[in-house]
Design goal:
Blueprint (H helix, E strand, L loop, with lengths): L6 E5 L6 E5 L13 H10 L6 H8 L5 E6 L3 H12 L3 E7 L3 H8 L6 E3 L2 H5 L6 E4 L6 H10 L3 E4 L9 H11 L4 E3 L7 H11 L7 E9 L21 H5 L9 H5 L10 H18 L6 E7 L12 E8 L3 E8 L6 E8 L2 E5 L3 E6 L7 E4 L5 H15 L7 H20 L3 E4 L4 E2 L3
Parallel strand pairs: 3-4, 3-6, 4-5, 6-7, 7-8, 9-12
Antiparallel strand pairs: 1-2, 9-13, 10-11, 10-17, 11-12, 13-14, 14-15, 15-16, 17-18
Helix pairs in contact: 3-12, 6-7, 7-13, 11-13
Length: about 425
């Protein structure tokens, strides 16, 4: 049985039956979607309620989508290109606080309408789906607004800036019956799926007591603002960029490298560890950390950043095993990966390969290189398929929330300088 707070079983006192109960913010959600035949029957009976596009999508005759991009920075434009590669998408709208980013999208999609306010984009009738690639501090508001506007949403990781934002996003997806895929693309990676089936699901590792993860030398966290941003450009809305964050005067570095500032994101912990802890949750069938502790600091890059350049995180899962994460931006070390350590062997995996080594003396490693493929593209294809089928995507909003939640424990512990005990069902940090 999957150990998750989303589905918890209890025994009925009368007959010993196992009854499925959902946690508090998932309780009102239907567990199954209406069949295509049911929806089609409704469309025939009440055709005025369906647009031509939605009707053709039900029939499967024209599974094309009009995309609205919110957040047109480098990552947003990169994922947008993955959408275009599918041949099923056209970009009809783009929103960014910096007009230069909008112009860069228009060089690829000249018909796209440009907006500086995401709410105006969401009013557009020709936007079916939304790609949300804003900085982390805007994720919750923009995603909830898009879901409430009836759009299916692909949102970059981490889903949230704070733990308490997650349940509200999940609720918006469920109440509006929207597909919401979080950009934790390993869940669509063929060699991740294969490694899980071959070694985790079969119990080949025995009892797992430790999972090690690391990600060193990620250069994206060392970005320097270009000279052109020394003075605020007239076509950049700084106040809108700040949004819910307290006011500060124009700072090109905080705008350009916002990942290095805890007001806007979670540094290496939420930007990198969230990817790995999501793989751990997927492989272990357990998304419920029960404690967290972290230590680190700004040890080398004294450039005004507030997110640590070196960090160690340790999470415990129900007294069964621990998961660690270590990361440094110091130039002397590079590399990333995950290692599952069990009583019968260990499994290493990264974005290009996996390797199993049995515990027996003299055992030879079994290495499998992943295919040369783009699993971000596969993740996007899965999202589009689910927009048609109305099935849950590979990284449903709930999964994305739980993985962000686990990462947040590391940052909260780092800031508060204490060990946290955590109730994963109530999603609350326990009092001292």
């Amino acid at each position: 049985m999957r150990q998750t707070a989303e589905r918890a079983f209890r025994k009925d006192s009368g007959g010993g039956r196992e009854i499925l109960s959902l946690n508090r913010y998932n309780a009102a959600m239907a567990l199954s979607h209406p069949s295509r035949r049911t929806v089609l029957r409704s469309a025939v009976q009440a055709p005025a309620a369906f647009s031509a596009l939605s009707y053709s999508r039900i029939l499967g005759a024209n599974e094309r989508f009009n995309l609205g991009l919110i957040g047109a920075g480098e990552r947003g434009r990169g994922v947008m290109m993955s959408f275009l590669k599918t041949g099923r998408v056209q970009v009809t709208a783009v929103c960014d606080v910096y007009a230069e980013m909008i112009d860069k999208v228009k060089s690829v999609a000249p018909e796209a309408k440009g907006f500086s306010d995401h709410r105006k984009l969401l009013e557009q009738k020709d936007v079916d789906i939304v790609l949300n690639a804003t900085p982390d501090h805007w994720h919750a508001a923009t995603t909830i607004d898009a879901l409430n506007a009836g759009k299916d949403v692909y949102v970059e990781k981490p889903l949230t800036l704070r733990i308490e934002e997650g349940p509200e996003i999940v609720k918006a997806a469920r109440v509006n019956e929207r597909v919401c895929q979080v950009g934790l693309q390993q869940r669509s990676g063929a060699h991740y799926i294969e490694a899980k089936q071959q070694y985790m699901d079969t119990g080949a590792l025995g009892k797992i007591t430790l999972v090690r993860t690391w990600w060193h030398g990620n250069m994206y966290h060392l970005r320097r603002a270009p000279a052109s941003l020394a003075a605020k450009p007239s076509n950049l809305d700084w106040a809108r960029f700040l949004g819910p964050v307290r006011w500060r005067d124009w700072d090109p570095q905080q705008f350009w490298n916002w990942r290095a500032y805890l007001d806007f994101g979670g540094g290496q912990v939420t930007d990198l560890f969230t990817h790995w802890i999501d793989v751990v949750h997927m492989f272990m069938n357990n998304d419920s950390p029960t404690s967290g502790v972290a230590a680190g600091g700004v040890y080398h890059y004294k450039d005004g950043r507030t997110a640590p350049d070196t960090i160690n995180v340790l999470l415990e899962y129900g007294g069964q095993y621990t998961v660690t994460f270590e990361a440094t931006l110091a130039p002397g070390i590079r590399g990333y990966g995950i290692e599952f350590c069990g009583t019968k062997g260990k499994l290493f995996i990264d974005r290009s390969r996996y390797e199993f080594l049995a515990a027996e003396r003299g055992a030879k490693p079994v290495e499998v290189k992943g295919p040369d493929y783009d699993f971000t593209l596969d993740h996007v294809k899965n999202f589009l398929d689910c927009c048609v089928s109305r099935k849950r995507p590979n990284c449903d909003v709930y999964d994305g929330h739980r993985s962000a939640m686990a990462s947040h424990l590391g940052n909260i512990s780092y800031v508060q300088k204490r060990r946290l005990n955590f109730d994963p069902l109530r999603e609350e940090i326990l009092p001292l």
